[in-house]
Amino acid sequence: MKRSEELKIMLKNLKEENNEMLQKMVRSKCSEDGSNYDKLLNEYWRVYGSAASDKMDRLKCQIWTEERREVEVGDGVTLCLYSDAHAYTVIAKTAKTITIQRDKATLSPDFKPEFIPGGFAAHCTNQDEQKWSYERDPNGEVLKCRWSEKKGMFVYKGCQIRNGRHEYYDYNF
Question: Where are the chain's structural domains?
Answer without folding.
Answer: 3-69, 76-163
